[in-house]
Write a structure and sequence with these properties.
Blueprint lengths: L3 E13 L10 H23 L9 E13 L3 E5 L6 H8 L7 E6 L3 E4 L12 H11 L4 H15 L14 H13 L5 E4 L8 H16 L3 E5 L3 H7 L2 E6 L2 E7 H11 L6 E3 L12 E10 L8 E2 L4 E9 L3 E11 L4 E6 L3 E3 L2 E9 L7 E11 L3 E15 L27
Parallel strand pairs: 3-7, 3-8, 5-6, 6-7, 12-19
Antiparallel strand pairs: 1-2, 1-4, 8-9, 10-11, 11-13, 13-17, 14-15, 14-16, 14-18, 18-19
């Protein structure tokens, strides 16, 4: 039976909006509050008296009565929308800030990578920052000496290792910071959404490194909006909403629940007011809809429907324009990218339709991104998630009623004959 390594019991975190009285959660804030105390005691008492009700509008509960356990060797994903409390939770687990109420038991050394370049000094070189950051994270000089070449090699910044970090890009800082934290060999590694800054090759490297760490029996807590990375890395997941635990369990089930609850499937959106419609001074979107070609009024779409993706837009300046459409699965996977014909457009309202054949897409939730391109080469407007829709599975023949795997699900002509 696995040992419980992190035990979170009834943890809440409260912030009072507009006040500084919570600032002593951190060491620097605490020291500052001690210095300010003689001068602000009266003001503080006066302010506190206005906020006796913890449910008032000026009180924000970033976490509320949160309880869960992480076993040794688990790779636990933490998902939720922005503002759900994910980063607050990781800061509490990393002992950067304290909970307002509740208790946390952690068995093991924790290494955290929560923000780009955390613990780096911009004036110091990459080499100097490796030693400083490694020391802050608890490594001895001998440990850093032994792992230095490995850290630099993994980060991929060896050419700039003696260059001040202030000249690094944010991606280079993330690479170096992650490399230091990953080579600390902590019992627990806590990672916030920082890998999004790195390129695809480095993200793949990081995920491989984290999988290697987990295979040694160490524990990882991972926050990300990349559901593909979450799916491939995490064996368990918790889903937070407004600081509260919605559900926990096997990763794929929790991801499906999260994406289904937060995915628009309205099939159509209209924008009547050109001033508030999505777009810019060249393009404004008037309508986005997905419907069955044979039955446009039908609200339920099936995989055996011929589909139409239809868009109306205001063209505000004469130019040669075409549309690029990206269809994304509910997990953020790109299903396909298609483009319209290129045309010279005057000012006015235009309609563009993409016809998608039946029996191509699997039953799933989807979203559409639109990219307006000028002269077939220059981007003029990108619109993300302009419309979402759900494709359902019609009644099937035979006895198979499980979920069909894959993003696409084409129907091919097949033959089955006695030879």
């Amino acid at each position: 039976m696995s040992k419980v390594q992190i035990d979170v019991r009834n943890v809440s975190k409260r912030y009072r909006l507009g006040l500084k009285e919570e600032s002593n959660d951190s060491l620097m804030g605490y020291l500052g509050s001690v210095v300010r105390a003689p001068f602000e005691s009266f003001k503080k008492v006066k302010s506190l008296s206005k906020f006796e009700d913890d449910n008032s509008e000026s009180v924000l509960w970033a976490l509320k009565d949160l309880s869960f356990q992480v076993n040794e060797g688990d790779v636990m994903g933490v998902i939720g929308k922005n503002g759900a409390g994910k980063s607050t939770l990781l800061k509490i687990l990393s002992r950067i800030t304290r909970p307002t109420t509740g208790t946390i038991d952690i068995n093991g050394r924790v290494a955290s990578l929560l923000e780009v370049g955390t613990g780096f000094h911009s004036e110091l070189s990459g080499r100097e920052n490796i030693y400083m950051n490694g020391t802050i994270l608890g490594m001895t000089k001998k440990e850093i000496d032994r792992k230095f070449e490995e850290i630099v090699d993994f980060s991929g910044v060896e050419r700039f290792i003696d260059t001040p970090v202030k000249r690094y890009s944010s991606g280079m800082q993330v690479r170096l910071a992650f490399s230091v934290a990953a080579h600390l060999e902590p019992e627990i590694l806590v990672i916030d959404e920082v890998l999004a800054v790195g390129d695809a090759e480095f993200q793949k490297k990081c995920i491989g490194k984290m999988q290697g760490i987990s295979n040694t029996g160490r524990t990882i807590l991972f926050v990300s909006h990349n559901m593909g990375a979450m799916q491939s890395l995490c064996n368990k997941c918790i889903y937070l909403e407004h600081g509260k635990l919605v559900s926990e369990g096997e990763t794929s089930k929790i991801i499906d629940q999260y994406l289904t609850r937060n995915h628009s499937t309205a099939n159509a959106h209209d924008w009547d007011d050109i001033k508030t419609a999505p777009g810019n001074d060249q393009i404004r979107l008037k309508k986005a809809s997905v419907y069955s070609e044979n039955n446009p009024e039908e609200s339920i779409l099936f995989i055996n429907n011929d589909l139409v993706f239809e868009f109306e837009f205001w063209n505000l300046k004469p130019m040669q324009t075409n549309l690029s459409l990206k269809l994304n699965s509910i997990k953020g996977e790109l299903v396909f990218n298609v483009v319209s014909v290129v045309k010279d457009l005057n000012e006015g309202v235009y309609r563009c339709r993409f016809h998608v054949p039946a029996n191509l897409l699997n039953d799933n939730h989807y979203s559409i991104d639109l990219h307006f391109v000028k002269d077939a080469s220059r981007s003029i407007c990108f619109m993300e998630d302009v419309v979402g829709f759900e494709l359902q599975d019609p009644p099937r023949e035979g006895s198979w009623f499980g979920k069909w795997e894959g993003i696409v699900r084409p129907t091919f002509r097949t033959e089955l004959d006695l030879v």
